[in-house]
Amino acid sequence: MLDLIFRGSFIASGAAAGGESHAADAGHHAVSYTGVMVYVGFVIAILIVCMVLAKKGLNNRFFKNKITASFEQLYYFIENLAVGIIGPHGRKYIPMLMVFWLMIFVSNLVSLFFDTAPTADLGFNLAMALMAIGYVQWEGIRANGVIGHFSHFAGPKLTGALIGINFLIFPIEIISEAMKNLSLTLRLYGNIHGGHQAVTAMNKLGEPWVPVGAFLLPVKLLTCVVQALIFCLLLCVYIGLVTHHEHEEGHAHDDDHGHEDHSATLEPEASPA
Amino acid sequence: MNAPFALGLAALGVAIGLGMIGAGAMNGMSRQPEAIGKLQTAMLIALAFVELVFLLTVFVGMGALPK
Fold first, then answer.
1. pTM of the entire structure?
2. What is the DSSP string of B1-44?
3. Which of A13, A51, A206, B52 is deepest in the core (most CB within 10 A)?
4. Looking at beta carbons, which residues of chain A come within 8 Å of B55?
5. Whether the complex's predicted ipTM surpasses the cut of 0.85
């Protein structure tokens, strides 16, 4: 609705300048602040309102405010995700992961009730994916140096005549790195936009009386959560891949063994019950 | 006729794959309930990759669909 109003006014103002069809075309090719950007603004407004409400509960000793408490839970969730996958140094990526999570999740929720949303738009998803993967490269270069980071792409260190294999692996790895952008984009876009398509298709079943597509809402709600989770999860995995250090991995390994031993001692007690 | 059929085939394969991942994860979870967190993470990553295959198929096949 908002979309129509804004685009309508845009076309009207353009028509005065140089013909209606020309203005409509320009809307598709140039950066336009009338289409999906309205929804981006809408999502950001929702987030800001939520955060302002959450900030009121911050001064208490413990959070009585429900919104503050749920933000706290979200923080713990993201912290688990980051520390669990990236390792102990993953704590510094929490703010970025929170931003991605909130943006994707809220715009997925918006997409449940409106005919478009930021995440149902290819450009917006591509922008997020480019930022995410670009940051992964930056972190990789910071952790391993430029040469170290790019020699990651060349596969294992081989010697002698086998070194030709590294030259074969390198372009393939570069391509797969670039494809990460595409896969993040298409996964999000396909799921959210595909949800809309499915609702449209199912609405045709009971066309004049029953909006059958509305029964897809629970499934789409599940998709909302899972897609936001998967985006953050994959980002964690990518960051973890480029920033993992040998000695830290050794520690994590030791911890794992400790945990396994612990559970092994627990299991006989639990099994009779 | 061909494009919808191909999309259906892709959906069939991906559905089998997703089902196998789900079944495997459930087996693992029931055998070792304390590993549920780790299994869920791995399961979601695998789901994402299998799902992507279908999405790519849809993007390639969508153009060939009859209007």
1. 0.75
2. -HHHHHHHHHHHHHHHHHHHHHHHHHHHHHH-GGGHHHHHHHHH
3. B52
4. 186-187, 190-191, 194
5. no
